[in-house]
Amino acid sequence: MTKSHTRKQIRLKKYDYSQPGYYFVTICTQNRKNMFGEIKNGQMVLNNIGLLVKKYWNKLIDKFNIELDKYIIMPNHIHGIIVINNNGRTHGSAPTTGTTSSVGVDPCVDPHPSLGKIIQWFKTMTTNQYIKNVKNNNWPPFNKRLWQRNYYEHIIRNKTELNKIREYIRSNPEMWGKDENNLEN
C-alpha cells in the first residue's frame, strides 16, 4: 500500500479571496533561509536580494487593483497587509488607507484579483528576477525554490485587528531574536 501525502488546507473554505478587504500575509523563503539582509540594532538592513523583493512588492499596486498597507521584509520572510479594492473603492470592515481612482487605469491591470493570484505573481516575478541575477550578477543560487510553496494569510475583520497587525509588522525587526521564523532560535 502506498502512502499519499495530503496537504493541509489552510484557506477558509468557500471564501472568495478576491472579495474586497484587508489581508495579512506572510511569505517565507524555502527552508526559511536568510536571504534578504540582516537585523542590525533592531532594524532590518536589506541586501540586493531584499531590495529586489521590496521592488516587486511595491509593483503589486501597478499590476493589480490593490493597495499596500504596512509591510516589512525580514531576513527570510515578508509580512504585509494587502488591501483588495473594488472598482477603485476600498471596501471591507477595516478602515481605508486611501482610495485608488479607476480613471486612467491600465487595461492590463486585473480589476478583480484573488489573493492567491497576487501572491503567485509576486513569487514568480521575484524568482525570475533572482534567477537573472544569478546568471548576470553572480548572486548565490538557491536550492530548487526561492519561496516556500504556500503562504500564511489572515482576513482582517476590524480596526482593532488591523492596528494590532500593523504594530506586529512595525515591531518585527525588534523581536527577531524571539521570532519563530528565525532559525537561530
Order of helices and strands: EEEHEEEHEH
Q: Based on CA inertia axes, which overall geometry fits?
A: globular
First and last CA, distance: 39 Å
Overall domain count: 1
**CATH fold descriptor:** Alpha-Beta Plaits
Q: Which CATH first-tier class would you pick?
A: Alpha Beta
Model regions low in confidence, pLDDT < 50 over at least 5 residues: 4-9, 87-105
DSSP helical segment count: 3
Question: In oligomeric terms, what are we looking at?
Answer: single chain
Secondary structure: helix percent:
25-40%
Q: Architecture, CATH level 2?
A: 2-Layer Sandwich
Radius of gyration: 17 Å
Q: Sheet with the most strands?
A: 5 strands, antiparallel
Bin the strand percentage. Answer: 15-25%
Name the CATH superfamily classification: Transposase IS200-like
Helix/strand structural class: alpha+beta
Please tell me the overall pLDDT: 84
Number of strands: 7
Structure, explained:
By secondary structure, this protein is of the alpha+beta class. It has a single domain, classed as 2-Layer Sandwich (Alpha-Beta Plaits), CATH 3.30.70.1290. The strands form two sheets. Strands 1, 4, 5, 6 and 7 form a five-stranded antiparallel sheet that branches. Strands 2-3 form a two-stranded antiparallel sheet. α1 packs antiparallel against α2. About 14% of the residues have low confidence.
